[in-house]
Task: structure prediction
Amino acid sequence: MIGRKKVFFISTLSAAIFSVLSGLAPGFYCFAFFRVIIAFFNAGVILSSFTLCMEITGISQRTFAGLAIHAFFAVGCLVFAVMAYLIRDWRALSVITGLPGFLFLFLWRVVPESPRWLLIQGRGEEAREVLGRLARGNGTQLPAAELKKPLSTGGEKVSMLDLFRGRNIRQRTVVLVISWFTNCVVYYGLAMSAGSLGGNRYISFSLTGLMDVPALVVTLLFLDRIGRKWMHAGFLFVGGSGCLLWTVLHLLGASGSLKVIAAFIGKFAVAGSFGTVYLYSAELFPTQVRSLGMGIASVGARVGGILSPLVLLLASTSAILPMLLMGALALLTGLLSLTLPETLNKPLPETLTDLES
Result:
């Protein structure tokens, strides 16, 4: 493990390089290869930045910080739609969207390494130095007391298998992977279904990103009151109900506008669930395996994203099958997520030993 900071900067710079290269690609297969590489490094950007954000943020600000990342993702979708509308040449668009990534090189000295990760690696002095800098930035001073020694495992190496050894960590891993999978299947399934509504494709793409904004606002208002577990499960219940409502309306021969409203209810709720599950996952996995845990959960999401277009193809057999399947999947995952513990206002777990004790 090389740390959250290095993974973030390596992934960001690599994604920027391959974005520029994709705009210079001599043929389709070369272009497609570069886009796959970009997706690989973008996953590293998202997961490392979110993990780092959670590990340097206090309990009182953790919800806002986590949801702010998703808010900027939604804003990015809107900005990209405008850029794509103004820049119709795909080569120029690929190059221009990659260039901002190089600006992050100037932030190397600004972005700190995670002090929690440093402690886990047995690098207490570096952790204290980072915390001291953060304290000065907040207009306060770091207490003179020593950092807690139990947080350190002496740099003990962990692997993906450690996510399945203990009963508690295994249960959390399995449920979260299923949850990320379901969120991605339903989220992208509903997003891609929006194209069948017709209209300007640039506006349609903008609306799919815009739908995330009210969902994140609702999440921000209620997440610290209702709690992570019930908020996440509740969003899945509402999202699944929206999909099933669309199915019922279709069978009853309802108007297209009513079915659009039902689909938008589902999209709104699943967007909120997606924002919640990122924060919830970061709080459920201990620092020692947080990056690994977020990574394997992300694999579940990527598999869901791959399968979502195939789910939509079921409409060729029966028009209600995609919505019926996505609705049932969301409801079942919502029930499964209720087996997870609540993390509201609780300190982040540090080691696997802490979790299993």
